[in-house]
Every structure is written in C-alpha cells, then in structure tokens.
Amino acid sequence: MKDKLERLLNNCYAPISHFGVSSVIVTKDGKEFLGVNVEDASTRAGTCAERSALFSMITAGYKPKDVKEINIMLSSGEIGTPCFVCRQMISELCDTDTKVNCYAKDGEIKAFTVEELCPYPFGEKDLK
User: For residue 128, what pLDDT is reported?
Assistant: First the structure.
C-alpha cells in the first residue's frame, strides 16, 4: 500500500500549498478507490484526498459503512491524520471500528480506528 500511495502523490494538484495528500479506500469486498487533494485559487472549493476517494466510492454505487480501511500519505513524508472536514465525512460514512492507516514515506505506519479519530462525532441524530 505504501508504494501505491507514494505513486499516487504524483497525481495531486496542489499549486498553492505544494502539499500533496493521497488516499486509498479499500471496501469490505476488496475494491480500491483512489483519491488525491485538488486545490484551486479560492482554496475553499478544492477537496481533500480522503473525501475524493470516499466520493468516488459512493459514486460507484457503494454505500456508507462499506469501507474496510482508509490509507493516507502526505507528500511531506511525515505521518499525518485526516483534517477535521474529512473526519466528519469519515465518521458518517464508516463504521467506528474502520481502520485509518497513516503512512510515512519511510514505511512507518500509525493505525487508528474511526472512533479514536472521531470520539465525539456530529451526525444525523444531532440534527433532530
């Protein structure tokens, strides 16, 4: 997975921050969905790699809770975790025990569950 994430960093579009992020979502049936961050001049209209991959999964007909694991790598080479906008989407589309694997380019991996990254999620029940 590390090599796949590293190659995928070449597809990032980050002309402003020059900070790429790649993500591979693996569904419970083994299908993979790729995502990279895409920026624009307003910065607010772009999207993160994790959401890009999740949106591709949903577009392909998969449903929330079909995610087995989320894999992430930053272009900086360091381990990083999803931003809070991505954590919101992850908490809504994934089970609490879904693994989130954060890779460094040197091969180090830190693994979390969705529940560890999002201990107090805001969801549909909060809207009532």
Answer: 87
